[in-house]
Amino acid sequence: YQAEIAAFKGAFYADIFGWMRPFVESGQLLRLPPWAYDAIIMGPAHEFARRWLGGMQELALDEAKGIIATAVWRAISLAN
Q1: Phi first, then psi: what are they for 29, rounded to 5°?
Q2: Which pLDDT value is given to residue 3?
Protein backbone atom coordinates (compact mmCIF):
# COMPACT_ATOMS: atom_id res chain seq x y z
CA TYR A 1 0.00 0.00 0.00
CA GLN A 2 3.01 2.29 0.18
CA ALA A 3 2.57 3.56 -3.40
CA GLU A 4 -1.15 4.20 -2.86
CA ILE A 5 -0.49 6.13 0.34
CA ALA A 6 2.26 8.16 -1.33
CA ALA A 7 -0.05 9.00 -4.26
CA PHE A 8 -2.85 10.04 -1.90
CA LYS A 9 -0.55 12.21 0.20
CA GLY A 10 0.95 13.77 -2.93
CA ALA A 11 -2.45 14.83 -4.23
CA PHE A 12 -3.65 15.90 -0.78
CA TYR A 13 -0.65 18.10 -0.13
CA ALA A 14 -0.61 19.48 -3.67
CA ASP A 15 -4.09 20.87 -3.03
CA ILE A 16 -3.10 22.30 0.35
CA PHE A 17 0.12 23.84 -0.93
CA GLY A 18 -1.75 25.26 -3.91
CA TRP A 19 -4.16 26.95 -1.53
CA MET A 20 -1.30 28.22 0.68
CA ARG A 21 0.90 29.49 -2.17
CA PRO A 22 -0.67 32.99 -2.44
CA PHE A 23 -0.27 33.47 1.31
CA VAL A 24 3.38 32.43 1.18
CA GLU A 25 4.06 34.64 -1.83
CA SER A 26 2.38 37.64 -0.16
CA GLY A 27 4.50 37.15 2.97
CA GLN A 28 1.66 36.14 5.27
CA LEU A 29 3.04 32.63 5.80
CA LEU A 30 6.58 31.42 6.26
CA ARG A 31 8.24 29.96 3.18
CA LEU A 32 9.10 26.42 4.29
CA PRO A 33 9.82 23.12 2.56
CA PRO A 34 6.74 20.88 2.21
CA TRP A 35 7.95 18.39 4.82
CA ALA A 36 8.12 21.20 7.40
CA TYR A 37 4.51 22.22 6.80
CA ASP A 38 3.51 18.58 7.15
CA ALA A 39 5.27 18.29 10.52
CA ILE A 40 4.05 21.64 11.84
CA ILE A 41 0.44 21.43 10.65
CA MET A 42 -0.34 17.74 10.88
CA GLY A 43 1.97 16.78 13.75
CA PRO A 44 0.03 18.38 16.62
CA ALA A 45 -3.34 17.15 15.34
CA HIS A 46 -1.96 13.65 14.82
CA GLU A 47 -0.44 13.55 18.30
CA PHE A 48 -3.63 14.83 19.93
CA ALA A 49 -5.74 12.26 18.03
CA ARG A 50 -3.37 9.47 19.05
CA ARG A 51 -3.63 10.45 22.71
CA TRP A 52 -7.39 11.05 22.58
CA LEU A 53 -8.03 7.67 20.96
CA GLY A 54 -5.74 6.14 23.58
CA GLY A 55 -8.00 7.33 26.38
CA MET A 56 -6.87 10.88 27.19
CA GLN A 57 -10.31 12.40 26.72
CA GLU A 58 -10.50 14.99 29.50
CA LEU A 59 -10.08 17.77 26.90
CA ALA A 60 -13.09 18.39 24.66
CA LEU A 61 -12.42 18.05 20.94
CA ASP A 62 -13.63 21.61 20.23
CA GLU A 63 -11.28 23.00 22.88
CA ALA A 64 -8.35 21.00 21.52
CA LYS A 65 -9.17 22.18 17.99
CA GLY A 66 -8.86 25.81 19.08
CA ILE A 67 -5.62 25.25 20.97
CA ILE A 68 -4.00 23.34 18.11
CA ALA A 69 -5.20 25.76 15.42
CA THR A 70 -3.82 28.75 17.36
CA ALA A 71 -0.47 27.07 17.93
CA VAL A 72 -0.13 26.00 14.29
CA TRP A 73 -1.08 29.46 13.02
CA ARG A 74 1.53 31.05 15.29
CA ALA A 75 4.12 28.61 14.00
CA ILE A 76 3.64 29.38 10.30
CA SER A 77 2.28 32.94 10.24
CA LEU A 78 4.47 35.99 9.76
CA ALA A 79 1.73 38.16 11.30
CA ASN A 80 2.80 37.31 14.86
Answers
A1: -120, 150
A2: 93
Alpha helices in the chain (DSSP H): 2-25, 34-37, 43-53, 61-76
Q: What are phi and psi of 77, to 5 degrees?
A: -90, 140
Would the pTM of this model clear 0.70, i.e. be above it?
Answer: yes
The total domain count for the chain is 1
**Can you give the residue range of the structural domain that contains 55?**
2-76
8 Å CB contact between 44 and 68: yes
Beta bridge partners of 32: none
Report yes or no: 23 and 29 within 8 Å, Cβ to Cβ: yes
Does the pLDDT at position 74 exceed 90? Answer: yes
